[in-house]
Protein 1
Amino acid sequence: MIHPKPTEKIVIHDYILRADGVFLAPSVEIMHPEFSLERHDAASFLHQQIGSMSGVFEMMLAYLCSINARSFSDVFDCRVIGLPKGETQHGSRVIWQSNVKPEHADKFSSSKDAG
């Protein structure tokens, strides 16, 4: 058990040989009042968690890039954004986005009356 609260804990089970002869690999069980995970194979649980952590890390880097992004012009608003879940662009889940600031939009709008 790894947690000081009695209603929130992680139980890690070692190899077990059941009475019926079935051999169980190490497993993890999470007990929590709002969400819990029934006993789950430790190797697959850890594999899933590594995938989740890498996604969180990628989004954190995108966030840090976005808050430190410098615009190359006073006309554009630049930032790094995450794409919708499941979408990628050139293998990445984040992209650089530059938009014309509303106060400069008239400089970039095409006039149909010109001619």
Protein 2
Amino acid sequence: MKTFLPGFDSPIGGTMVYWQRNQKPVQDFITQNGLSAIRLPDLGIHGGIRTWHVHLGDQVYPLTSAQWSKFSKGITDRVSSKLQSAPQVTFEEGMLLAVIAQGIEER
């Protein structure tokens, strides 16, 4: 799927720009949960981790299922609040929201 969000097609992470702009909630979550970073090259991994994790700077922090649930709840709460106060979305944003909604409905 081609997106129109800046940074979404970044070679170092699909949502890089979003997380660069929103480091405080990630940093707070890491601190509150006492998370420890891992070094991906030491594990033979060079990107594209398809399991629960967050990034802060050049560090990667693996999460348990329960931690991801808590972290993702913060994301949905924040996005829900922003969507409720938005007067409209662009066409591209609407397309992305449809993909997200479809994924949620298909669970």
Protein 3
Amino acid sequence: MATETPLWQKVYLGRLGRVYRDTAKIIGYLGCRGTEFFDKAKLLPDYEKFRFENAVRDLTVYMKPREGRVRADCPGQEDPQGHSRPVARRH
């Protein structure tokens, strides 16, 4: 039975580790919206959309928008649209 590769192996040992690290750098600690992410990712020389989409899926948790909800990562700012929060930590 095949098991999924652990995230730390994908980031540090996997053949696509650079994609995961670039994705984490773009998203940053506070997170970003999808359009902001892909605008920055398209500027990278090794950009392949499906690889970056997979990295985003593995590294983030999507927060559904709620009307009038205050963003947990930036107190005092409204978040009317969906927002991706990072799971990866900086060292």
